[in-house]
Write a structure and sequence with these properties.
This protein is of the alpha/beta class. 36% of the residues lie in helices and 16% in strands.
């Protein structure tokens, strides 16, 4: 299995162990890492059976103003941006984790904010026989999970996890 971590994170694979398909033919990613996993699945000539996207970075429904503000806040004070981001990805859960911050770059932030998921590329993966799974938290404070669900639904088995935020950590409830 190949796993790609989220923006300015490492050690986050463990958050998804209950969902991960541990197979040599699975590519998975969390948030920004979902973009990297998707790109890997598109370009690889190796066998891929499953592409798992955990809270994929889905910002194509956000305004240019929102994206400029994110870039501005990051440029102004990276450390404050990291701290606020780290708190927000776990809401509404109060789980304390040992996730390690990595130094994220302005280029990576710009990439994740401006990335456009394309229906024809998802369809092409489906046509290659790749099963796509998308996992979303109903209480996500980073992306609009409901908009993401509507977008991915025609191309992926899409799971909305009630009472979970961006990291899919449950506070209560079930998967729907």
């Amino acid at each position: 299995m190949k796993f790609y971590s989220g923006f300015c994170l490492s050690n986050d694979k463990g958050l998804f162990t209950e969902f991960l398909k541990e197979s040599d033919y699975t590519i998975a990613g969390f948030s920004y890492g979902s973009i990297k996993a998707f790109e890997e699945a598109k370009k690889t000539k190796s066998r891929v059976d499953t592409l798992q996207l955990f809270s994929p970075a889905f910002f194509q429904d956000k305004t240019d103003k929102f994206k400029r503000m994110q870039n501005m806040y990051f440029a102004k004070d990276k450390q404050a941006y990291y701290e606020n981001f780290h708190k927000s990805i776990f809401l509404p859960s109060k789980i304390d984790t040992s996730l390690k911050h990595e130094e994220g770059s302005a280029e990576e932030l710009e990439e994740l904010l401006s990335f456009i998921w394309k229906a024809d590329e998802l369809k092409a993966l489906q046509d290659r026989g790749i099963k796509i799974e998308v996992y979303l938290g109903s209480e996500d404070k980073i992306i609009n999970a409901h908009n993401a669900k509507e977008f991915f639904l025609p191309y992926a088995d899409t799971y909305m996890i009630n009472h979970a935020g961006h990291t899919l950590q449950l506070t209560k409830g079930n998967i729907i």
